[in-house]
Amino acid sequence: MKVLLTPRIEGFGGSRWLKPIASTRALAAVVFVFLASAAWAQAAAPAAQASVMSVLWKWAPLIFQGFLFNLLVSVGTMALGTVLGVFLGLAQVSPYRGLRRAAWAITQFFRNAPWLVLLFYAMLILPFQIGPVALPSWLKAVIGLSLPVMGNIAEIVRGGVLSIPTGQWESAEALAFSRRQILWMIILPQAVKRMIPPWMNQYAILTMATTLISIVGIQDGLTMTRAALVAEARTDLLVPMYLMLLLMFFVYCYPIARATLSLERRFAVKI
Amino acid sequence: MTTGHHIGRPIVVIEGVEKAFGAVTVLRDINMTVSTGETVCIIGPSGSGKSTLLRCINALAPVTKGSITVDGQQVNDPKLDKLALRRKVGMVFQQYNLFAHKTALQNVMMAPIHVLGQQRAEVEERARRLLAKVRLTGKENSYPGELSGGQQQRVAIARSLAMNPSVMLFDEVTAALDPETKKEVLVTIRELAGEGMTCILVTHEMGFAREVADHVYFTDGGLIVEDGPPADLLCAPRHERTRAFLDQVL
To answer: Looking at this predicted complex, what is its ipTM?
Structure first.
């Protein structure tokens, strides 16, 4: 476990995206814990039962399928949340006071609401179909989860826009650019760079939060894992089985976290 | 030593201008007339409202009272087309404010293409000429972060000139520069003034003001204390406050 606790060991060369050594070590540590728990379960199990590894191997494809569904929901939610969040964030820096205030209120409401409650709301309030378009429950979940994501991205956009020095606005105004041109041609292209790391961070958080959808009855990785445990009815599988799912999330989210860190470091020196 | 160029009709006329930020009045009863081809310097202690006055001329800051006209256009008319006004008035800032994500050449080309809708090829040719004029040939593809302060400021001047303004405003453009780079920028402005560009400068460079200005205004506490040709105002000031200020800076 020592390797996990080692603080960031990389140097100051911020241009490399992923630090191969640190990533490999962290991954190795997780795999080690996973295998150790499997071995421990194996040792504790009666001899007549199938080996832990073979049981895990049997269920792995199904759980992985469920995990892929988590990823699908995370990508859909992020796409929707980003589009909505960009508009909401820009509305917060609008010259119109009413719009600015409304956008601020909406942002604060959704940022400070528990995700699970919003998810429940979406599942219960949204109809099964809108006109001819059916609304499957996973799509409702995407809509429900995209609300807090929208709020957080609105804040990222607002912060990014405001982080650009006012001199950029002034000099562009003096050159007779319109407000819209200034925002889209001068401010946003500079601000996007600063928004990318927190945006990626938000995505990693969201991906892990997608397991909430199992509570509202969607067949995701967590649901599959639970189903496998129920089917096997062996308590010794509890730890390794969940760890297998955790490992899948880790392998997906950890590189995102690393990339976020190194992008943050790289962009920090500019301007 | 004036530049000896032709001074024409009044182009910027400021009458009885007052500017307040809330309860704080930073400009009171400002009257000033600048004619085409004229170079005017505004000097005075910090916080005397010099920069605010420049910002009122291109409507970056609205005036509280009085009137400013630029080429016959009322700046404080609520129906004013601000963008039309700003096409006529170029402005260069103390902190350069170049667009950090664009190269020097792109900085110069952006406004003519996107604001004036001119042809890219034609704009690029003119932008290259302007960068050559401010002695930055070879730096066309450099980003602002790769240029020195003086170089950035000259790109900023070229960027304003690309709009073919009738009047150029310079807001303490050398204040953030070290003495050597300062000179590069001042030489550029002197050439511009010599070519007959109407220039209004807020500056702390007394030597430069004496050399290039046709008329100098001394402001203090939001008022114009006195004005006159540089030889008179800078060498033989009539007012005690002007004298005290000049004693401190010269």
So the answer is: 0.91
